[in-house]
Design a protein that fits this description.
Transferase(Phosphotransferase), domain 1, Prot_kinase_dom, transcription regulation, Bud32, three-stranded antiparallel sheet, alpha+beta, about 20% strand, chromosome, binds adenosine-5'-diphosphate, serine/threonine-protein kinase, about 45% helix, binds magnesium ion
Length: about 250
């Protein structure tokens, strides 16, 4: 008999796409070989005490999965969760066919006439983060790498019967999705939300030359889509000041 922690799909091929400090990320399939999925695996850490290690693995895995489910149930664009095995540290989720906002911005900003497309992405990014914060979810690692643009709509696990297969859309037109809620939390604190925005701002400034204006567009859309954003915006000023002081001290 299979042990309770046996892999749900033992023979499914997996392709490693990222090895982070905390998790291994694979492209795989779920239930059917035609349904692409992402597997995020938090491997056991042999240097940690086994009981503590298991508790941490379970806690982080469940925390990320719960935030994804919570966000999605509130209409915030995040990948759908397919399956969780917290003891193994596994989350299977919807595979997003597309690229990170970081990569798309790099391409668009390097090409002639990408401006309008960039503007539209900025607006949708602000709206997504605004929705997230309005739901009192703080991302915890909000960078342009952790926002994806879906460039192809495939029939996924949760797709309806009438859903078309493989409809490709332009890079700038695809749906935006927030990914990687591994450091996220539920919080009503303005400080936490302001730090989210600050982290995103730093990510913009360090990777994109004309980022100041772009980030301004993000913030405008953020404020429009999040009615309670005023105190967060005020707090962002404080967080920026602290950041500046810190960088002066060294
Ligand atoms: N649902 C998904 N569909 C497709 N690609 C994804 C998905 N989630 C993550 N990725 C890709 O895998 C990378 C790592 O995933 P992420 O959740 O950000 O892990 P980490 O915590 O290691 O940063 C992402 O930058 C993205 O390129
Ligand atoms: Mg990430």
């Amino acid at each position: 008999m299979a042990s309770p922690t046996a892999a749900p799909l033992p023979d499914t091929p997996k392709e490693l796409i990222k090895q982070g400090a905390e998790a291994l990320v694979y492209k795989t399939t779920y239930l059917l070989p035609t349904i692409p999925a992402l597997l995020k695996l938090r491997p056991r850490k042999p240097y940690r005490h086994p009981a503590l290690d298991l508790r941490l693995t379970k806690h982080r895995c469940l925390s990320e999965a719960r935030l994804l489910v919570r966000a999605r149930s509130l209409g915030i664009p995040v990948p759908a969760v397919y399956f969780v095995d917290e003891a193994r540290g596994e989350i299977f989720m919807e595979w997003i066919e597309g690229s990170s906002v970081r990569d798309i911005l790099d391409q668009l900003l390097a090409s002639e006439g990408g401006e309008a497309a960039v503007d539209r992405i900025m607006v949708r990014m602000g709206e997504a983060v605004g929705k997230l914060h309005a739901a009192d979810i703080v991302h915890g690692d909000l960078t342009t790498s952790n926002v994806m643009v879906r460039t192809s709509r495939r029939k996924g696990l949760l797709g309806g019967a009438g859903e078309q297969e493989n409809v490709d859309v332009g890079q700038a037109e695809g749906e935006l999705l927030l990914i990687d809620l591994g450091l996220g939390s539920v919080s009503t604190a303005e400080e936490d939300k302001a730090v989210d925005l600050y982290v995103l701002e730093r990510a913009f400034l360090s990777t994109h030359p004309r980022a100041e204006r772009l980030f301004g567009d993000v913030l405008e859309a953020y404020q429009r889509s999040y009615k309670g954003s005023k105190p967060v915006m005020r707090r962002l000023q404080d967080v920026r000041m602290r950041g500046r002081k810190r960088s002066m001290i060294g």
